[in-house]
Amino acid sequence: MQQQQHCLNCGKLFTPCRRVKNQKYCSSLECQRARKRNWHKLKLMMDQDYRDSQEDAKRRWRENNSDYWKQYRTTHLEYTKRNRELQRIRNKKRRDNRILQKTTRQPIAKMDALNGLSAQISGKYLLTPVKGTGVAKMDAIFVQITDISPQFAESR
Fold it and tell me: What are the φ and ψ backbone dihedral angles of 100, each rounded to 5 degrees?
């Protein structure tokens, strides 16, 4: 007789099927869906070919069903009404945040932001850490950038 174990999804005890090696989920429909969902998520993370084929399948479906959302909105009026109301709230929050940022005048550092660059990017630069003011996102650090390319060329 096989030893019972706890299901990874629901936590209930179950007796694994002897034909299923390393069974971790019980046979309930909800737990089997969770198992498949987890497998799919892991496969998307680990397998580039699988990820590409999934994206291709989604693209083809969108091309073949281009009017899906238009039809859905016409047949689901409550959904459409609720979505419009929520979008108005999101837009208002976005506007309020922009107004707040303009009035506080605090710079915001964003990942990969390249605003206000001069035409020259390549060269030799001295980066000097400075005390940051404002909001930094991700692993941002405030620095002062000094172009030393002309000085570097003269010293050669």
Answer: -60, -45
Bridge pairing between strands 125-129 and 13-14: unpaired
Question: What span, in angstroms and rounded, lies between the C-alpha atoms of 41 and 44?
Answer: 5
SS3 47: coil
**Which secondary structure element, helix H or strand E, spans residue 84, and what is its range?**
helix 77-104
Q: What is the pTM of this model?
A: 0.49
Answer yes or no: are the C-beta atoms of 113 and 142 closer than 8 Å.
no
CA 26/CA 11 separation, integer angstroms: 9
Residues of the chain with pLDDT below 70 are 1, 103-121, 132-140, 150-156
Per-residue confidence (pLDDT) for residue 151, from 0 to 100 = 62
DSSP state of 135: E
9/32 Cα distance (integer angstroms): 9
Q: What is the pLDDT of residue 128?
A: 78
Regarding beta strands 13-14 and 5-6, do their DSSP bridges make them parallel or antiparallel, or are they unpaired? antiparallel
User: Which residue's entry shows tokens 């050669």?
Assistant: 156
Partner residues linked to 5 by β-bridges: 14
Distance between CA atoms of residues 22 and 11, nearest Å: 16
Taking the C-alpha atoms of residue 11 and residue 27, their distance in angstroms, rounded to an integer, is 12
Question: Any idea what DSSP says for residue 10?
Answer: T
